[in-house]
Every structure is written in C-alpha cells, then in structure tokens.
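subagent[fold] <- orchestrator: predict structure for attached chain, return tokens only, no commentary.
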Amino acid sequence: MSPLPTLIQKCRAIIGDGTMETCFDLLEASLVNRARLDELLILKGNLNRAKHSQSLGLSDTADRVSATTTAAILEMLNKLTEEDISPINPINGRILILSPESKVAEWRAMFSTQNFSHAHVIQYGQDIPLDYRTPDVVIFDDSGPNARPYMAQYAEEMPQAHFLYFGETNPFTESRKRNPKDAAIFDRCANANSKFTVHARLRELLEFRRIYGVPEPA
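subagent[fold] -> orchestrator:
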C-alpha cells in the first residue's frame, strides 16, 4: 500500500487540530524531494520568525502568516507524488514498547509486522520476553502509569538500549540538572509528544545509534 494517502490524511488531520509544528515534523521526516523540502523549510522559518516577532511586540502578523502558511501546506499536499516521499521500509531494529493496558492494541497497530520485523508491545508490569531483554530501543508511553520508575529500572537493566519517551515532558528534564544518573538517562532518550511523530523520532534514533553506537556507560 502506498504511504502517500496516509501521509496526506495525517497532515490534514494535524492541520485541522491546529498543530502546524507537528505537520512540519511529519513532512520533514517524509520528504526526499529537495525542492519540496526547501519549500517546507522556508515556510516553517517564515512562520517561526513571525511568531517570535509578535511575541516580542515587534509585529502583529503571526495570524496572517499562519493562515498563508496553512494554505501553502495544503496546496503542497495536493501536489505531492510518490517520488516526493520516502517509501516505508521495514525497520529491523529490536523495539520494545511499554504501554498502559488501554493503549496496547493501539501500539500494536502502529507497529505492525509489515513495517517492523522485531517489535513487541507489553503493558507495564508484564514480564519481558527473553528475546526483548536486550532491545535496541525501548518506547515508554507515559499516558498511563508513571513512566519514570520504569525508565530508571530499564536504564540499569538494559544499559545498551536507547529510549524513546512518549508524552508531554520527559520526566528527567529537570532532575538531570541535579543528578548525573538522571542526566545519563535523559541523554539516551529521544522524545515524541504525538503519535504522528513517533515513527520519525524512532528512525532518527536508530540512525543515531547506527552512527554513534550504544549509549555510553553512566
């Protein structure tokens, strides 16, 4: 199945929710056409500058620029072709996803075997299968039980794994400034605050891991 209709549908839904930044993230992760990507980055830069200028009281054009940016993105979506975006290639990294019980089915749908050859979803508190006790990446969904104690536990038990935190604010953001151990956990994390950006952040994390290797010992 072509990924293009899904990408367009997701972007339109995100724009409808008023979260343009998430749309930018999703398109940046998907576009391979350099001209399209440059166009996107120009639109993003113009919007960010308008918002910053308005926050400083130097202008009041942010709403107008936001409207024209939205129109330009919708026009871009209408013109996208299969050649403009990257194909969905199966991800072969070993991925462990920890989820609240109510979200397990949703995570399994997001990590189908069609696109992820080694991904396993369990709810918090369940035993980890032997094959996933040395994963490449552990994803923590912080929408149910507090993810922080599990992140601290698996940082000790899985020293060679990187983490992907899914939630509003990484729980080690503040404590890392005071505690070196917390800083080490934070440094091995990527962060996603929307289901639309989880796969993009995961690909970036796996690419970082491929280039730089496993996390350094705490």
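orchestrator: received. Logging for downstream: The chain has eight helices and five strands. The chain has two domains: 4-84, 95-212.
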